[in-house]
Amino acid sequence: MKNIISIVFIAIILIAWYFIILNSNEFVVENEPTKIEEGLNKFINRPEGNLKVKLLKIQQIVKTDTFVAVFSINEGEVGYAKLEKKLFNKLKIIHTGHGSAKIKYEDIETNKGNYGLLYGTNPQLVIHTVQINNLEGTHTQDVDISNEEIILVADKLPKEVDKAITSELIFFDKKGNKVIK
User: Measuring CA to CA, how many Å separate 38 from each of 54, 71, 75?
Assistant: First the structure.
């Protein structure tokens, strides 16, 4: 009788474990650009979308388990994805965001603190520098993007800055003139 109870208990544990693993791996992809792009297409188009996602750039945020990617949707809107490193060199898609602005700034939480993520596109390299101003006046940063058509810059936020989303972006050309974006 004890053996039957033990076998049933182990069977229930194994079935539960199988479903937990199965569900937690829904958006886990190989750390390879084509696989990441396929995963992003599935993630963004769930349950029945028909958007075409093209991966533009991906990189790991230094000394963290977080990867960030820049992608385009239907050759227009620009978006980003946050992915976390998992076992066996796999990445799990955590969330995405996109919109019509060509350059955006978001905060990304990692296992090593918060980072400001500047991402987007800079066609014809019109923008030379982006000035990021925290609206609370506690943080200002200039980012040189003069050689970057695809922008993906992640910098650790100072401790006094909680969120990057309370920031404004000011764009400058190579002569230092403001550019309206």
Answer: 9, 12, 16
Residue by residue, DSSP assigns 8-31 as HHHHHHHHHHHHHHHHHTTTEEES
* Cα separation, 82 vs 86, whole angstroms: 13
**pTM of the entire predicted model:** 0.82
- Domains in the chain with CATH codes: 29-100 (3.10.450.630), 102-181 (2.60.40)
pLDDT of amino acid 101: 86
Mean pLDDT, residues 106-118 taken together: 92
CA dist., res. 108 & res. 114, Å (int):
6
DSSP per residue, 111-143? TTEEEEEEEEE-GGG---EEEEEETTSS-EEEE
Q: Which residues of 80-92 are buried (b: 16+ CB within 10 A; e: fewer)?
A: bbbbbeeeeebbb
